[in-house]
Amino acid sequence: MAREIRINAFAMNCVAHQSPGLWRHPRDRSSEYNRLPYWLELARTLERGRFDGLFLADVLGVYDVFGGSPDAALRNAAQVPVNDPLLLISAMAAVTEHLGFGVTSVLSYEPPFPFARRMSTLDHLTGGRAGWNIVTGYLDSAARAMGKTRQTGHDDRYDVADDYMDVVYKLWEGSWQDDAVLRDRERGIFTDPAKVHRVHHDGPHHKLDAIHLSEPSPQRTPVLYQAGTSPRGRQFAARHAECVFMSGPSAKVIAPRVAAIRELAAAAGRNPAEILMFSLMTVILGRTPEEAQAKLADYRRYVSHEGALTLMSGWTGVDLSTYDLDQQVRHVENEAGRTAMDNITRADPDRVWTVREVAEHVAIGGIGPVIVGTPESVADEIEAWVEQTGVDGLNLAFAVSPESFADVADLLVPELTRRGRYKQAYRPGTLREKLFGPERTRLEAPHPAAQFRRRDGSSSGTRR
Predict the structure, then answer these.
(1) Could you name the CATH architecture of 6-452?
(2) Is the peptide bond before 81 cis (omega within 30 degrees of 0)?
């Protein structure tokens, strides 16, 4: 039986997100990003299309690599202005019943103690539909904004992240026993103090002596996403991630990354099939091939190539304004995102990218493929992509919002459903249960979170 294809919407609490310039399109409403009605309508649209979730990107800092200043980013709304993504989710959860929410949060600049409470709060308010996309950051501008001269080295950031994860696992899984909260009105006891435990952590990067401030949420630990596929990022994903998001322009780039993470997960004792892989894609749909191509041509009238190069310069740490447009992009090793640089240099040895080609490709949907056609032809290409890469699903970026997502809900989803490749209804339960089934209510061994869970009053890494 053919595997079910998962779909997330990929967006950001900013203008245009991965399609710089398209905020100018007359049907695009992403410039309303700072008003709740825009997000509430989007959430309802996604639930109508039975999207698994809304995956919200985020970045701290500004894209100031291109031209050595933030001017191009500001001119083109290249992910600036950008608001906090987490504050959107409670409102969207209130107008939906099933839609999941994967929120990006950069752990490099927030202590784990308040962050753990924030995610527990979100999990409570969404009824267990919260996910966390774990990122370490890639912009020096973010490090400077937080009082540092530059960001920590690329691989060292993951060492910090491993320590951070141990702290939040202890808080989420080990501080409160399942039956700690009594809500006993007769005796006047809300929480049994004997079942709430102090967490001690003395790690190489983080120290803690506290009880978790939140009572156990429906999932305790939110669904864990991870979005880095550098060699060190893959190791981190194989240990921690339940879902991995990766981007790349072709199946030839994506397939080896999927295989590498699954191999590392197996080596760590995890079932590789229990890690869901999502890859970036943008689809442009029409009821006829001519309508779809006309829509693409219409969108291209509004793209900003400068905005696209501003984004790519930030992702790679290379100032592409210093290149000629027809100059080949060559690999540079730095402390920015390794995956983004690999995508346009050495990930596909048969593809040579010029700066002009990068600008044209990234201008709609970022570095992922853009599929244009009817629901039938797009479904054909998606099925082929899934088979060639081994991914479980897609993070769909938009060209024009909410139009791109409405087209998926109204045109593509019925076709995938007809083929038996898409769910006919949401599963009940939390986000983890919707993604993995009712047997996966909590993270179990060998996932590292499980070692900190209290069962009979004791657990590794915590004590009263």
Answers:
(1) Alpha-Beta Barrel (3.20)
(2) yes
The tokens for 102 are 């994967």
Which helix (H) or strand (E) is 259 found in, with range? Answer: helix 251-267
According to DSSP H, which parts of 103-230 are helical?
112-125, 140-145, 154-169
In the chain, % of residues over pLDDT 70: 94
Mean pLDDT throughout 429-453?
94
**Residue 434: φ, ψ to 5°:** -65, -40
331 within 8 A of 353, measured Cβ to Cβ: no
H helix intervals, 274-354: 289-300, 305-316, 338-343
Confidence bin at 311 (pLDDT 50/70/90): very high
Dihedral sign, CA of 36, 409, 278, 349?
negative
H helical segments located in 103-153: 112-125, 140-145
3-state SS, residue 276: strand
Q: How far apart are the C-alpha atoms of 202 and 215, rounded to whole Å?
A: 23
What is the rounded CA–CA span in Å between residue 48 and residue 90?
18
Residue 97: exposure state from Cβ atoms within 10 A (0-12, 13-18, ≥19): exposed
- Contact (Cβ atoms closer than 8 angstroms) between residue 399 and residue 299: yes
For the CA atoms of the chain, what is the radius of gyration? Answer: 22
Q: What is the pLDDT of residue 138?
A: 81
Residue type, 262: R
- pTM value is 0.94
CA–CA dist 286, 109 (Å, integer): 43
Say what the pLDDT of residue 347 is.
Answer: 62
> What is the reported pLDDT for 425?
98
Q: β-strand 130-135 against 6-12: which pairing, if any? A: unpaired
150/139 Cα distance (integer angstroms): 9
Whether the predicted pLDDT of 335 surpasses 70: no
Query: Which amino acid does the sequence have at 232?
Result: R
Residue 255 clears pLDDT 80, i.e. is over it:
yes
Burial class of residue 101 (count of CB atoms within 10 Å of its CB; 0-12, 13-18, 19+): buried
Q: What is the pLDDT of residue 139?
A: 85
In the predicted structure, residue 457 carries a pLDDT above the cut 60: no
Helix H or strand E encompassing 16 = none
pLDDT for position 337: 59
CA distance linking residue 51 with residue 43, whole number of Å: 10
